[in-house]
Amino acid sequence: MVKILQAEEQLKHYFGYSQFREGQQQIIEQILNGHDSIGIMPTGGGKSICYQIPALLLPGITLVLSPLISLMKDQVDALGEVGIPATFLNSTLSKQEELQRLSQIKEGQCKLVYIAPERLEQHSFLTFLDELEISLVAIDEAHCMSQWGHDFRPSYLRISTWLNQLSIKPSVLALTATATEDVRRDLQQHLNVNDENVFITGFGRENLMFQLVKGADKWRYVERYIQNRANEAGIIYASTRKEVELLYERLNKKGLRVGMYHGGMGEQLRQKHQDAFIHDKTTIMVATNAFGMGIDKSNVRFVLHYNLPKNIEAYYQEAGRAGRDGEVSECVLLFSAQDIRTQSFFIDQSDLQGERKSQEYEKLQQMVAYCHTEMCLQQYILRYFGDVADESCGKCSNCNRSGEKINRTKEAQMVFSCMKRTRERFGKTIVAQILIGSENQKIKQFDLNQLPTYGLMKNWTQKNLAAFIDYLSAEQYIKPTGSSYPTLQLTEKALFVLKGDEEVFQNEIQTDDAPKQQDDVFEALRVCRKELADAQNIPPYLVFSDKTLRQMSQFIPITLEELNEIQGVGEQKLQKYGESFLTVLQTFEEKKPAGDIRPPLDTPKAKSSSGKKGSYLETVTLFGEGLSVTDIAKKRQFSEQTILNHLIKAYQEDESLNLQQYVNDEKRHLIESVANEVGTEFLRPIKEQLPEEVTYQEIRFVLGK
Ligand code: ADP
């Protein structure tokens, strides 16, 4: 218990968070009590803190094994930002740098040391480790240890061999976000961990909104989508290099700040694009699935899949790169049936044999089924991973279907009969051209303008009709054949429609073109963050996460004490960046919300944080004794604003608190009547209607009720 209280103190001091998340506390408790553990938490679940906090409390060093060399610098920089001494050893360092670091470690200057497991194969390094006091070994991305994992690395097996050779065994913590039942059992076996020391917090990511868009004109969708998200960081995944380049060029032409990444680019160029994205110099990254592993950028607000991914694992991993900071983020998948072919082709061309190959086809089928399911999308994914998800998320496109279904039976019949009359010999473009009555040369050449279905849908544009045909494919009425020029074939389902036995309904297509409201406080904070980050050449999210900026923009702290209450503002960052952010925030004081301004904690299951709880009551007592706000502030060494907040809180909770001393009745009535007139959403309009001498503090005080 004492240990966990100490751990909580460290969490607040260094990271600025008031409480542990689900799983974190149990894992940390186990580690501090010397029990080896396995933690399975989703991306963004907060795995790093599970070993970073014990590292601070345990003697000696914590060795962190991670396969992602590119992430190590970032992680060490992030720890440096909050004041925790850490370092890494990997192949990017010069010999001299390495020697320097080794001696720092030896001298006890580092609490955490990040290495790749391959280093455990160097005899000289093992000898070096022998002389150190290692209290904890944290194995990040631990699924790499299992042959069943999607990313097995033989070097990971070296870890357990090394651990077994040690005379004094450190505690071991294995962490991963992706563990199927098989992987988990494998890990337990390798590390000898009992069931009761395995902590699984579930795969759900509450802040992700899954959207599925079928049968839309993809490019137009992207255009509009991006237009409404001017400053937001996002990744667009496409399945081929060619498509990535095409999208990149088109977005670039529109003057957007865009980068691209695929395996065919030179290493240096790729790195350049990646750095620009991480440092918020570009906002959009168009990429193949080669991009993302080893990227820790926490403020990715959307991940848009331009094409169908190969399976749900890949999809969840890629989409899951959105919203690592816990802020609401979108994962959009643009589905067209044609993409199934591309993925089948990849499987076909792969080196996989026999059962593994058919397994991949099956997985692809389940990916396609995701695009057809009517159930909650988040739930579908969780069930795929064997997670129990009883409730629908209420946020995905399936949960939020407008309910408006348009009957498209007649139009579908026209498409089907056109296909039938042309004996299913043509692809989407020709079918659409026949139906809209196109004058195209090819149509005439094949006498297709003589067909009775020619011009049957002349009130449609070719583009819209092609999108409708895509929709019919997505709903499995039509099956594109597998060739480089796919022709369309009718499925049995379509025949029922043709006979009039079944009807076709289409949901209103969601294009999400409602312009998003810009939050000018957030934007100003973002600019401030970027300037501070650029000056130090670090990624902006290392200064503060989007989530922290969002809280600032909602609660507008204007003193250091208030800023310290924002989740994510620890001691070192408060000192380092506090004044810069306050300067920005103070210019928005009139937007400060009235009433209880305490920022909410990270999770709804808030526990009372020890000690500080009754702080505001002390203010109330002093106030009752007749001290002024200024006097109380001086006496308690708080800002006047904090004292005022205490009183507002007390007033909300206890009406008998006498306000008279602070705001007299006359002023109070005046404020109340203006507030009734102009509303209480913002303070400025109220202030403008009142005499000069009424202060913002007084208004806030009265409205606090
Ligand atoms: P993971 O490694 O599981 O993907 P991280 O360790 O990168 O996740 O944490 C994701 C985000 O959540 C980070 O911004 C981190 O600072 C934040 N976080 C972690 N623990 C807490 C907590 N107890 N309260 C609030 N935020 C937290």
Question: Can you summarize this structure?
Answer:
With 705 residues, the protein is an alpha/beta fold.
Q: How many strands, which pairing sense, and closed or not: the largest β-sheet? A: 7 strands, parallel
| Low-pLDDT residue intervals, each spanning 5 or more residues | 511-515, 603-613
Q: Which superfamily, in CATH terms, is the homologous superfamily of the largest domain?
A: P-loop containing nucleotide triphosphate hydrolases
CATH class call of the largest domain: Alpha Beta
CATH topology assignment of the largest domain: Rossmann fold
Oligomer: single chain
Mean pLDDT: 86
Our Rg estimate from Cα atoms comes to 30 Å
Overall structural class, as computed from helix and strand content, comes to alpha/beta
Number of helices: 31
The residue fraction in helices comes out at: 40-55%
What is bound: which ligands? adenosine-5'-diphosphate
Sheet-strand content, in percent, reads 5-15%
Through-space gap between termini: 38 Å
Give the strand line-up of the largest sheet.
3-4-2-5-6-1-7
Number of strands: 17
CATH hierarchy: architecture of the largest domain: 3-Layer(aba) Sandwich
Domain module tally: 5
What does this molecule look like?
- With 705 residues, the chain is of the alpha/beta class.
- The protein folds into five domains: 199 residues, P-loop containing nucleotide triphosphate hydrolases (Rossmann fold, 3-Layer(aba) Sandwich), CATH 3.40.50.300; 165 residues, P-loop containing nucleotide triphosphate hydrolases (Rossmann fold), CATH 3.40.50; 105 residues, Orthogonal Bundle (Arc Repressor Mutant, subunit A); 73 residues, Orthogonal Bundle (DNA polymerase, domain 1), CATH 1.10.150.80; 95 residues.
- The chain is 47% helix and 11% strand.
- The protein is built from 31 helices and 17 strands.
- The strands form four sheets. The protein has a seven-stranded parallel beta sheet with strand order 3-4-2-5-6-1-7, sandwiched between helices.
- The longest helix is centred in the middle third of the chain and has 19 residues.
- It is globular and about 95 Å long.
- The protein starts with a helix and ends with a helix.
- The relative contact order is 0.08.
- About 2% of the residues have low confidence.
- The structure holds adenosine-5'-diphosphate.
